[in-house]
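Weekly puzzle thread! Below is a chain. First person to post its structure in token form gets bragging rights.
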Amino acid sequence: MVNAFASSVTARNTVVVHRVLSSGHDHHGHDVEIVETNRRGHATRFAQDAARRGVDVVIGFGGDGTLNEVATGVAGTGAAIGVLPGGSTNVFARTIGMPNDPIVAAAHLAAGLAAEDVRPIGLGHVNGRYFCFHTGVGYDAAVVRQVERSAAFKRWVGHPLFIYAAVQTWARGYDRKHPHFAIHSPGAAEVPDGYFTIVLNTNPYTFLGNRPLDLSPAATLERGLVAVTFRTMRLTAILRSLGGALRGGGVQPSEHLDLRTDLSSLTISSAMPFPYQLDGDYLGETQRLEFEHRPDAVSLVHPHAP
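Winning reply:
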């Protein structure tokens, strides 16, 4: 699945990637079929169809949204997923150790295929959708909504736009005085005053340039979900947490920050609708999110150094 609109996908590197994956290391090569996706939901339908036809591996070459759609289409079938970085950030590809250059990454993916290193991974599931690395609730989603409104910029500017949108949303668009939702998880006290929550399936939450924003080392493909909830919109408190996250080692719980790890389920709810985004894709507003961790939801081709 190739998203030709993704920022680092070109006609030329698509041809090269196809060649690298087709040649194989075992001289039998692989039969590689390229499918271009051109609208939301497209990759999910193609992936479901490919799995039904008995395709062994469906590879997402695009941004994190393309991979999310591929994983959603393939989960629960006999096919595996692979990933190639074609977007501007490529959180998931980089999380599993892929280089950020698609052609170099293709060689790592081909080596993983040759080694037959295909292992099941856990995914998050919320309100009928799978997510590979995170769901952002509240402020985080309001920022993504702001970035999506300027999709033309997103392609060229990348991170500065995201930071600009974050500042703008904080200054103008997001209620900083009243909590937005409550958090419930089995066996723990309710948090009644969430301002924004990030539910992680993997860590880091994202990359700022080359630096991982490390929220919790407990968020791995083998363990349950992690929920990081900010109980304030005070800039000092948020920046202190995120400053720690950029230094590595994850964020620390405090009176302003609730941290829950190894979750099999979690509910976020409010009488007033709140925004959410899933793997970087803005999904609108809701009053209730039901999260589940689905262990072994899909098999992933793990990259190997060629």
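Puzzle host: Confirmed. Bonus trivia for everyone else. The chain has nine helices and 16 strands.
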